[in-house]
Design brief:
Pfam families: SOCS_box, WD40
Number of strands: 19
Strand content: 35-45%
Order of helices and strands: EEEEEEEEEEEEEEEEEEEHHH
Organism: Ailuropoda melanoleuca
Keywords: Repeat, Ubl conjugation pathway, WD repeat
Helix content: under 10%
Pathway: Protein modification; protein ubiquitination
Radius of gyration: 19 Å
Protein name: WD repeat and SOCS box-containing protein 1
Distance between the termini: 52 Å
Number of helices: 3
CATH topology of one domain: Methylamine Dehydrogenase, Chain H
């Protein structure tokens, strides 16, 4: 069986290698497992996620079912063990990618959820919704740890679907693990710290649709409905030694294991991102 990607010479660069055909509706998002395994997950309006093995000629390994409506976006945890998928009807699902089984559904949003991203250590999950909110979750417990509101006062659940001039379109974690960026329909891009419920910096942006940090976190790129891409220098902060140690620990320890450590309660709260 041929391996993927095959060896190609310069004349073959840009040539179509595979065409993965199985979804029955629009494919909204794609994400590769960060472990280099060439496992690809696709999210579609056909209410499914499909797992493909590109080392096996694009063989479809699994169909993940659970969404009752469109799937908008998906993201792997940094260790590739967990997948988050978000979609219409307030849906936020977490999947075990070793067993291809649903771990839990996260409850809290009041409208369609359109974007998600894990923190670099995998201890936090950010989700963005048309309910004007970005939530930071503990993916290991399902707890909401922080809310970033884009409308004040925040709309009550019965009105959360109506504030369509404040719908949040995108969210992205910086690689320092301290900052999050969000785009909303109020023509603003916001930069947040994970421990503060107000933006540390705001910039104008019309028709924002998606955003992503550069690898070193120094630049945020944002794409718009009108075909433009804008770039910003991001808030810079030297992470504390405590935060760097926390990220190192949380890369290898889920919340449940952290909570069993024989250490003072304040240290446990810090390691669990609860202070």
């Amino acid at each position: 069986m041929a391996s993927f990607p095959p060896r190609v010479n310069e004349k073959e660069i840009g040539k179509l290698l595979l065409n993965l055909v199985d979804h029955t509706e629009v494919v909204r998002d794609l994400t590769f497992a960060p472990d280099g395994s060439l496992i690809l997950v696709s999210a579609s309006r056909d209410k499914t996620l499909r797992v493909w093995d590109l080392k096996d000629d694009g063989n479809m390994m699994k169909v993940l079912r659970g969404h009752q409506n469109w799937v908008y976006s998906c993201a792997f945890s940094p260790d590739s063990s967990m997948l988050c998928s978000v979609g219409a009807s307030k849906a936020v699902f977490l999947w075990d990618m070793d067993k291809y089984a649903m771990i839990r559904k996260l409850e809290g949003h009041h409208h369609d959820v359109v974007a998600c991203d894990f923190s670099p250590d995998g201890a936090l999950l950010a989700t963005a919704s048309y309910d004007t909110r970005v939530y930071l979750w503990d993916p290991h417990t399902g707890d909401i740890l922080m809310e970033f509101g884009h409308l004040f006062p925040p709309p009550t659940p019965i009105f959360a679907g109506g504030a369509n001039d404040r719908w949040v379109r995108s969210v992205s974690f910086s690689h320092d693990g301290l900052h999050v960026a969000s785009l909303a329909d109020d023509k603003m891009v916001r930069f947040w710290r994970i421990d503060e419920d107000y933006p540390v910096q705001v910039a104008p942006l019309s028709n924002g649709l998606c955003c992503a940090f550069s690898t070193d976190g120094s630049v945020l790129a944002a794409g718009t409905h009108d075909g433009s891409v804008y770039f910003w220098a991001t808030p810079r902060q030297v992470p504390s030694l405590q935060h760097l140690c926390r990220m190192s620990i949380r890369r290898v320890m889920p919340t449940q294991e952290v909570q069993e450590l024989p250490i003072p309660s304040k240290v446990l709260e810090f390691l669990s991102y609860r202070i």
